[in-house]
Amino acid sequence: MVSDSKRRIEVAAAGLLARHGYHGFGLKKLSEAAGLPYGSIYHHFPGGKEEIAVSAITGTGVLVGRMIRQAPGDVFGTAATLFDFMAAKLAETGWTDGCPVGTPALDGGSDVESVRSACVSAFDAMAHGFAEMLTEMGMEPGEAHALATTVVAAYEGATILARVRRTDEPLHTVSTAMARLIRLSLAEVSAAEANSP
């Protein structure tokens, strides 16, 4: 069982990573954001900044992947909710808080192997959630994985565009495009099934 203090550190770290990336967040800022003494940070994470970042990034991926898998079987609604969530988050934070996985992946994630690996795992967890939904809807696993990876990549790219342009338009545009792509892909599956002997 994760302690309340440890959970607060992970949540605060995810917020700082979303805003500043890996190199941009420090333990003093983390202590303030979590509302915990500096020494408490090292008590829960003796590995310091790197261990905290890995834990926060991995936890984000697991949480989002689980939310996607546990959503009602509507892949369109689930994808739209993901894009709408980020549009609201960016607007609420003045276009400063991006994705707790995507931002550190761009800022420092490649420099530190454990952080890079955590980003890979988090992206994979997100894609896996969508792939499972698509497979349940009749898509072949390989095709489902490819389409799910496309949705996650489009989401991250749209997040970057929205953040730098300071408008949610890219997120809404890409969300609509992804819904169209999913619909066409599922229609191809249905057509193939109808034509099979």
TrEMBL record:
Protein name: TetR family transcriptional regulator
Example GO molecular function: DNA binding
PROSITE patterns attached to this UniProt entry: HTH_TETR_2
Domain called HTH tetR-type: residue spans: 3-63
Start-end of DNA-binding region: 26-45
InterPro entries per record: Homeodomain-like_sf (IPR009057), HTH_TetR (IPR001647), Tet_transcr_reg_TetR-rel_C_sf (IPR036271), YxaF_TetR_C (IPR054156)
Pfam family, one: TetR_N
UniProt entry keywords in alphabetical sequence: DNA-binding, Transcription, Transcription regulation
Annotated Gene3D superfamilies: Tetracycline Repressor, domain 2
